[in-house]
Amino acid sequence: MSADGEDKGGETPEQQAPRTEEEIKKELEEKAKKELEEDAKERAAAIQKELDRQSEGIKKTEQELAKEAELERIENHRKAQDSQRAIASAMKAQAIAEEKKEKEDHEAHKLELKAKLRQDYIDRFGVEPPEEDKAQEIKEKSLKDQVAFYINKLKKDYKDTDAAGLKTCLTTLKMYVDNLHKNPLEAKFKVIKIENKAFQARVAPYDGVLDLLDCLGFENKGETLEQRKSIPDGFLCGVAVKFLDLVIGQL
């Protein structure tokens, strides 16, 4: 307040000049514009949030679809492999069955032919035909059966008359075969010298020995017995060693 008592302070709202209609209108328009801008921003943010959510959902769906596709691919691959194995197994079984049938048909034909020849002989001569050659019958057996036959024949022929000599013979044969079995690549075990003193004294005198050795792959070359194959039949040699052991134990 001044010295003369007059109030020099600011004017009161009532004392301010009234705003024009145009100013009020402009202020309302600016306020409305601001509200619209804020509302638009809120709407835009909401739309963007929804778009982000949908994008994330699409991405997740794509990952799930890719995972499902990979699992399906793996399953289809497994089924294809199972199918191939099943086909291969079926083809193998069919081949075995065909081979078996072919063998059976061959044997049946052979027996039929044999029976026919027998009957023809009887019709012509009125008697049974003579027995087949025993040696040929033996040769038609498997090598395993031939080995067993010749070892048993040695036992039958010499057990009662020369058991000690037979045991020495079979023990020597076992040594030949066992060495070959254990050392299939050793050249020295693939050859037996016929004129060797030990062979002549212990093995040669016994009838059937050369046939037995022939079954085991030792071919008679005149002065020597030599393996036909570069690699001997390990299974057959093992079987022979067992048979020889068995018979030696019975002497």
Kindly list the characteristics that best describe this protein.
251 residues, mainly alpha, Methane Monooxygenase Hydroxylase, Chain G, domain 1, 2 domains, three-stranded antiparallel beta sheet, 7 helices, 71% helix, 4% strand
Characterization of the model:
- It is a single chain.
- With 251 residues, the protein is mainly α.
- The protein folds into 2 domains: 111 residues; 117 residues, Up-down Bundle (Methane Monooxygenase Hydroxylase, Chain G, domain 1).
- 71% of the residues lie in helices and 4% in strands.
- It has 7 helices and 3 strands.
- The protein has a 3-stranded antiparallel sheet with strand order 1-3-2.
- Strand 2 and strand 3 form a beta hairpin.
- Helix 3 packs antiparallel against helix 6.
- The protein is elongated and about 155 Å long.
- The mean pLDDT is 85.
CATH architecture verdict of the largest domain: Up-down Bundle
Tell me the number of helical segments per DSSP (H or I, 4 or more residues long). 7
Radius of gyration: 54 Å
Strand order of the largest sheet: 1-3-2
| Proportion of helical residues | over 70%
- Give the total of beta strands: 3
How far apart lie the N and C ends? 154 Å
Low-confidence stretches: none
> Which CATH top level class of the largest domain fits?
Mainly Alpha
Morphology: elongated
Which strand-content bin applies to the residues?
under 5%
| Domains, number | 2
H/E topology pattern: HHHHEHHEEH
Mean pLDDT: 85
Structural class: mainly alpha
CATH topology of the largest domain: Methane Monooxygenase Hydroxylase, Chain G, domain 1
